[in-house]
Structures are given as C-alpha cells and as structure tokens.
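Example S7 (structure tokens).
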C-alpha cells in the first residue's frame, strides 16, 4: 500500500528525505521564477481572455499541485502562451469575442481547466503515457514556431492601441495593418518602449528579471505622468485577495465543446511539459514516469480550475530559469507558491495601473525566445518530409486558426507515422557459405541461392498500410526467379500485424498455391503468430509450413523432398518432416 501511495503521490517519497542543505538553492530558484512568473501570468491571462488576477490564481494552484504528484524534480508548471492561445480559441465561441477579458469569460476558462484535468487523469490512469511517442517532433516544432509568431501578431493591436480583431493569425495581421492609421500615440510610445527595453535586456542582461522591472517602471510612469488620463489603457481594478475554491457556474450544454477543447489543450500542453521534464531528467540523470506526468498535469489543471483559473502546462522557459538558479527539488515550486500567494494577498492591487501595452510587450518578449528557424534548416538538410510536415503544422496554426491548425497537426503526425511505418521492405536473402548466416542478396555476389527456393525477409510490420506492398514484393521476387517451388519468408521482424496483414498472407498463399508454389513462414513472433492463428493464416498455410527458424525452413526443402506445405508433396515425407521439425510444436501450442 505504501508503495502504491508513493507511486501516485511522489511527494511522499521525496519530502521525508529532503536535504535541508538544498533549501537556500531552492528558495533562490523559487524567487527567480517568481520574478518571471508574475508578469507572465498577468500577460498570459490577458491572452487567454480573462482578467489578469486569474493568472496569479492559476500560477499559485499549479505550483502547489504539481510538486505533490509530479515525477520531475525540476519542472515548473504554470500559465503558458501556447495553452492560453488555445484557451482563448476554445472559449471565444462560447462567450463571444466581446466578452473576452471580462469576468464573464473566467467561468468558461475554469471549466475548460477542469475538463482538461479529467482528460489528463483518465489518460494517466489508463497508462497511456506512450501517446507522447506518436507526436512527431517536426510537427511539434512547427506548432511552437507557428504559435510563437501567431501570439506576437495577436499582441500587435495591444501595442498599437487599436481594437483587437478576430480570425486566423494571418487575418489578424492584415486587419491590424489596416488599422495602423488609428494608432494611439501614447499607447505606441509605452508599448514600443516596453518592448525595446525588454529586448535590450534579453540580449545584454539575460539574467535580469526584465519583465518585473518593466512592470515597475511603467506603473510608476502611469502614476507620475497620469498617462491613463491621456488615453493609455491600463489593467484596471485588480482585487487584493479574492482567491477561493469552487466550481464554475456554467451549464452542461457546453460540455462537448469544452471536452473537445480539452483534447487540444492536452495535445499542445503535454508535449511542452514532457519536453521540459525529459530535458531536466536527462541533464540531471534521473527517470520520469510519463503516466504519472499525465496525472500530475491533470491535477495541476484541476487545481487551477477550482480557484477560477485556466489550464496550465510545464513551461520550458520557467523550468530553464529554475534550473539555472540552482533548483534541487520541487520544494522550489512550493516556495514560489508562497511568494505568489503573498502577491495575491498583499500587492495585487498595485497592478491596477499596469499598462495593457506593457503586458502585450511582455508576452511578445516571451514569444521572441521561441521564434527560431534552426529546426527548419535542420529538417531541410536532413529529411525533406520532416521539413514539409514542419511547415504544414506552422502554416496550419497561422493560416486556418488554432483549433483547425491543431487538427491539421494531429493528422500530419498520424500521416507521418503511417508513412514511416509503411515503408517495410521485403529483400531477397542468400546464405553466406562461410558463416551460414543469411544476408540480403542486393550488392552481394558471394551468397548461395538454393535452387527452386526464394528466401525473403519482412523488415518491419505487416499491417493495413503495408499489406499490399508485401504482396507486390513477393510476386516480384517470384517473377524474377522464374518458377520456384517455394517462397520462404523470415517474419522474425514482424512485431506488429493486424487482420489486413493476416488476410494478405492468406491471399498470397492461395495465389502461390495456384501456381504450384508453397508459402513458408519462419521465425514468427509468438504474439503475431497467435493473431495469425485466430485469423486463419495457420490453417491456410499449414502448421507444417511454419518454422521456428529460417535455417530449419530452408533445410526442409534442401534436405530432400518437396518440403512441407508444397503442392504434391509426398504425404509420408511431409509427415516425417512434421515429426522431426520443431515447427510441429507451433501447431500444438494453445491460442494466446
């Protein structure tokens, strides 16, 4: 029981053994991340379409929840740009674009966080952490670049002081350019000044908490020069305290849209979270549990939803800051949570005079760090298909909208998986007379080719995407050889098959039999053989034509006789071979 609790509540394992000598480093890391997290939380809340204080509520809840359930010692969970962009895309149709950035949107964002929590936890309980391996890195890199550029475009209207526009990111860019004549001079001055200041410190003093400094300076400028009276948009009333628990008050009629949106959040958020966790685990040489990470992210989103916040994920940027500051354990996140709670209780009201343009500049500065075309150059140099999928994912986000872009990315990942998995080759094999090992004939002229026998190997799965390719290859090998007595196929590399693959084997066996040619299988994987047996492959080919090894299968034809399963084979000879060969045991094995 104790082991089960520690598995699902890792805090029970690391907290009792916490080394107090780490406390100073963890406290410094917590403070360093706080200086980045507070301004980003305010900016990302605005991006998600809810009042800024909900960004602080979200950060606090996530910082408390993840250390209890997470398997990573270094990941920092909180609001992120990409997830908040998805949140805005999901809740805008539910509340209307005009209601965004008001308290009317907050319950929908909180409900989305709770729906996301349920999806995450369900995946974790079902041990589906393996789904991360099906997300193409090329597609995810395209997503990151598309989101980063798109969020920068989305914030341009805030810097210019023109009304926000909807539509895809490309449409937003076009409409924002059209609105340039209506630019507010004071807003542009503050916004451009804030962005310039942030970018200057990014490249000259990267370790300085530039976002926090920008907030302090611009709030001071607003108070000193009364800038809000001259048309500068500010955050407005930010309540001190106000943190509480509860379920959002919305109807069940929006549940379908929220759960569909939750899948999009998981698709985007889990990828970044797992990337951060794996990077830290590799650097510091420990293991993470991908299934537990699903549960931890779910609990973090659920905690955020219960305090009125929005979905979160593991942040690469904040995790990197924590690691650079010397974080040793998740105690740093708990300390950070205390700092955020003090901010909510005592100083949240200070942000009342924070310029909206400065928030936009902070979001843009965060996205600038993610805008890099290095992956595109690498994919172009290494694999043009990866390059194409990278560009497709990026274009989908920028040109057709976030939700449709995510769907395009999912489809691209699946197409890439199927395309890569369906390139199985079926080379002909020959025997090396010195070692007795079978090798591909192509490029070799020193291999023995038994007369009247075609020996081949399936180098990969045999399933719906590859079945016709296998059949075509077998018939090509038969045509090249003339009229062999048998085709012996080494299927030892086939660890994945399905009904389509089994049906194709049955079809090929029948077609070869009609030409007087036997189909023989060698070295089948037990689980695959069990599937083929249930599908009727063993009955169609004959249990005596299935061998545990390739040499055994070849020997059955070269030692004398026509070989098992061949048309016209002498019944006595076949019976002797069945008794003498270990292959006969395959026929007697119980179904798996």
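Recovered sequence:
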């Amino acid at each position: 029981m104790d082991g089960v609790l520690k598995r699902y509540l890792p805090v029970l394992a690391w907290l009792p053994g916490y080394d107090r000598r780490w406390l100073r480093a963890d406290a410094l890391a917590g403070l360093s991340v706080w200086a980045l997290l507070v301004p980003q939380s305010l900016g990302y809340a605005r991006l998600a379409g809810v009042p800024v204080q909900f960004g602080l509520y979200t950060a606090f809840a996530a910082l408390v929840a993840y250390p209890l359930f997470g398997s990573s010692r270094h990941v920092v969970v909180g609001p992120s740009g990409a997830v908040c962009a998805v949140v805005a895309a999901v809740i805008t149709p539910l509340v209307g674009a005009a209601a965004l950035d008001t308290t009317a949107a907050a319950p929908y964002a909180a409900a989305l966080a709770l729906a996301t929590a349920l999806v995450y936890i369900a995946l974790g309980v079902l041990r589906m952490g393996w789904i991360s391996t099906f997300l193409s890195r090329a597609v995810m890199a395209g997503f990151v670049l598309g989101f980063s550029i798109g969020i920068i475009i989305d914030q341009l209207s805030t810097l210019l002081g023109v009304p926000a526009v909807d539509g895809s990111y490309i449409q937003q860019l076009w409409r924002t350019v059209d609105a340039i004549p209506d630019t507010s001079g004071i807003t542009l001055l503050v916004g451009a000044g804030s962005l310039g200041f942030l970018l200057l410190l990014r490249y000259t003093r990267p370790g300085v908490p530039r976002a926090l400094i920008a907030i302090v300076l611009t709030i001071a400028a607003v108070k000193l020069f009364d800038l809000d009276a001259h048309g500068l948009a500010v955050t407005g009333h930010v309540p001190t305290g106000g943190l509480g628990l509860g379920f959002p008050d919305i109807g069940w009629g929006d549940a379908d849209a929220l759960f569909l949106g939750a899948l999009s959040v998981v698709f985007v958020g889990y990828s970044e979270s797992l990337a951060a966790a794996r990077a830290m685990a590799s650097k510091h040489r420990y293991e993470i549990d991908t299934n537990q990470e699903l549960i931890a992210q779910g609990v973090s989103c659920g905690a955020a939803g219960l305090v009125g916040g929005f979905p979160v994920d593991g942040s690469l940027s904040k995790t990197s800051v924590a690691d650079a500051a010397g974080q040793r354990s998740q105690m740093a996140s708990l300390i950070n949570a205390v700092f955020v709670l003090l901010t909510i209780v005592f100083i949240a009201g200070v942000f009342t005079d924070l310029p909206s343009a400065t928030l936009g500049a902070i979001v843009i500065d965060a996205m600038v760090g993610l805008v890099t075309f290095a992956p595109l150059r690498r994919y172009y140099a290494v694999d043009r298909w990866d390059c194409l999928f990278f560009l497709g994912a990026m274009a989908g986000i920028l040109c057709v909208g976030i939700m449709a872009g995510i769907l395009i990315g999912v489809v691209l990942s699946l197409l890439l998986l199927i395309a890569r998995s369906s390139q199985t080759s079926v080379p002909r094999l020959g025997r090396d007379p010195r070692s007795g090992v079978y090798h591909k004939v192509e490029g070799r002229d020193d291999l023995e080719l038994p007369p009247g026998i075609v020996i081949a190997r399936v180098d990969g799965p045999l399933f719906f995407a590859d079945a016709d390719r296998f059949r075509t290859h077998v018939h090509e090998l038969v045509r090249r050889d003339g009229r062999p007595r048998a085709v012996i196929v080494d299927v030892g590399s086939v660890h994945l098959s399905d009904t389509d693959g089994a049906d194709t084997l049955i079809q090929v066996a029948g077609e070869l039999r009609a030409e007087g040619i036997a189909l023989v299988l060698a070295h089948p994987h037990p689980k695959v053989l069990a599937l083929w047996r249930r599908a009727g492959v063993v009955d169609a080919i004959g249990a005596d034509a299935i061998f545990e090894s390739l040499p055994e299968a070849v020997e059955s034809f070269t030692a004398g006789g026509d070989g098992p399963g061949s048309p016209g084979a002498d019944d006595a000879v076949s019976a002797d071979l069945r008794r003498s060969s270990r292959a006969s045991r395959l026929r007697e094995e119980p179904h798996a």
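Notes on this example. The mean pLDDT is 89.
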